[in-house]
Design brief:
mainly alpha; two-stranded antiparallel sheet; 4 strands; globular
Length: about 270
């Protein structure tokens, strides 16, 4: 793995940018947690700081994944200019996303599905573009790992990374744009005060596209971690086969969740009077 001595954190390489951004989102998560505890203002029944907190945590996990897997690349590929440019673009896009979401939260306004003014419409479009950029960075890294014969990991980690990042990129874009295009997480009209799933806030009364999006996004972490575990206890062919099986199941789960939401059915239905 890359160390500080290798590059001196001069921000000349992708790994440096990913590490710094990971640290930044760790701090953002701590800050939004404090703000959530101190600020009692709400939007649609939720703390104004809940969305920034969720995004800070999710992006922290995302960039930590990119950091660790980039560190496994061979030196030659790790220093490629295109990978560095990809990292810079992804980090800047993610910084824009969290700053804008935080700005809207501070004003007690929605950041997502907010088309109330020309500026809001422009910013919403830029958020969509930023989401594409930071998501595609994972798919590009998958290509580098696939092409790298010197990747520092066993067969399970290698294929878990390739499949997790590539499938996660594709499924994340599909599910995210379905929500963005519909200007809603929901399929069906959710009644005021309707019950929601604890922590996640997913609807328990109407279709909700967020569970499918959650699985699609976090398969980027699940498959590499599973592959790493399989490498410790199984022979390479079996580790690879199990990673492939888990990848297939992840796709099927995402498709099923997405289909259920599209038909207006929540994961767990709770009657609301």
């Amino acid at each position: 793995m890359l160390t500080a001595e290798d590059y001196g954190f001069a921000f000349n390489y992708a790994h440096d940018w990913f590490w710094a951004t990971t640290a930044g989102f760790g701090l953002a998560f701590i800050l939004t947690t404090l703000l959530l505890a101190l600020d009692r203002r709400r939007i649609a029944g939720e703390s104004v700081w809940l969305k920034p907190l969720k995004f800070a945590l999710s992006l922290f996990i995302h960039f930590l994944t990119l950091t660790l897997l980039t560190g496994g690349l061979s030196i030659e590929l790790r220093q490629r200019g295109f990978l560095t440019a990809t990292a810079i673009a992804a980090c800047l896009a993610a910084a824009f996303e969290i700053l804008y979401i935080g700005f809207r939260a501070a004003r007690q306004e929605r950041s997502h599905f907010n088309l109330a003014s020309p500026v809001a419409r422009l910013m919403y479009a830029l958020m969509a573009l930023g989401a594409v950029v930071l998501t595609l960075a994972a798919g590009i890294l998958a290509g580098y790992i696939f092409l790298d014969p010197g990747f520092a990991g066993g067969a399970g980690l290698r294929w878990g990374s390739v499949l997790g990042l590539s499938l996660g990129t594709l499924m994340t874009l599909i599910t995210a744009f379905a929500m963005g295009g519909a200007l809603s997480h929901h399929v069906g009209q959710e009644a005021a005060g309707a019950p929601k799933m604890p922590v996640t806030g997913w609807s328990l009364t109407v279709g909700d596209r967020r569970p499918a999006h959650f699985v699609a996004t976090h398969v980027m972490q699940v498959l590499p971690v599973a592959g790493l575990i399989f490498d410790q206890v199984l022979l390479p062919p079996l580790a690879t086969a199990l990673v492939a099986l888990l990848a297939g199941l992840s796709v099927l789960l995402t498709v099923w969740l997405f289909r259920e939401a599209g038909q207006g059915r929540p994961i767990f239905r709770v009657r609301h009077r």
